[in-house]
Amino acid sequence: MLFLLSKILDFVLLPTVWLLALLLAALLARQPQRKQRLLIAIAALLLLGTNPALVNELLLAWEKPPVPLASLPRHADAAVLLTGITQVAKSPHDRVYLGPGADRFTNALWLYRAGRVRYIIVSGGSGAVLAKAHTEAADLGTLLRLAGVPARAILLEERSRNTRENALFTKQVLDTRPDIKSLVLVTSAFHQRRALGCFHKVGLNPVSFPAGFRTTDRSITPDYWLVPSPAALENLSLLLHELAGWLTYKLLGYS
Question: Of 144, 167, 179, 185, which has the fewest CB atoms closer than 10 Å, so is most exposed?
């Protein structure tokens, strides 16, 4: 039930949905003053939501900052790679389709190939409502093997559908592997706060290693401050989704 409600909440929080609702309300409004106020609201939402500098500043305040490799433990037991970066609904199902945030995968692979971790735990089934042909963990496990990581160094957790279940089911995997104690958590920078909270809640204390940054460095160029960007609206949608998820998890005691 909570899973379905979260999908509904994602839809309701989309700024594009707000824009459509305001536009329909403006078209149906009979009073000129009401129509004018609605059009002003649409213009304001577009102006603020597509401003790259404003949205970037909001994301910079929320994302966990990059962690220098030198600050990590020299040898951790495992990297926990959270999914959410493959398109499991895309056909044909004879390959892996990576989406935004794919450097979660490359960062985890980097840690392994650099000798910083001995194992990679890939956690994630599918966040889709309907069943899919295969899991995200299986997809990324395939890519890791193709990248030269031996099968013995890859542990798959394929049941989880959300961040709370990532933590719960990863803990169950680790309960069967007493040799794995120290962890590095690899997930997107905007997702690290919620993910760390969930892992701490189940008694795991991984080192944070943010990846998949949606922010850019600040700039003084006019396009950064003035030119509207559809990517900014997408990033704003992402931030609102994550803030709602973080707050909901806090209220439910999941993190």
Answer: 179
Q: Residues 6 or more apart from 98 whose CB is under 8 A from it?
A: 85, 86, 87, 105
Is residue 63 within 8 A of residue 215, CB to CB? The reply is yes
Q: What is the mean pLDDT of residues 116-139?
A: 83
End-to-end CA distance of the chain: 19
Task: Annotate 148-181 with b (16+ C-beta within 10 A) or e (fewer).
Answer: ebeeeebbbbbbbbbbbbbbbbbeebbeeeeebe
Look up tokens 């939501």; give the residue: 49
Residue 205, classified by CB atoms within 10 Å of its CB into exposed (0-12), middle (13-18) or buried (19+), is exposed
DSSP 8-state symbol, 105: H
Report phi then psi at 29, rounded to 5: -65, 135
For the record, the structure tokens of 146 come out as 């193709």
What DSSP designation does 151 have?
G
Quote the percentage of the chain above a pLDDT of 70: 94
The pair of structure tokens assigned to 242 is: 């994550």
Burial category of 95 from C-beta neighbours within 10 Å (exposed 0-12, middle 13-18, buried 19 and up): exposed
pTM: 0.88
Are 85 and 105 in contact by the 8 Å Cβ rule? The answer is yes
On the question of pLDDT at 5 being above 90, the answer is: no
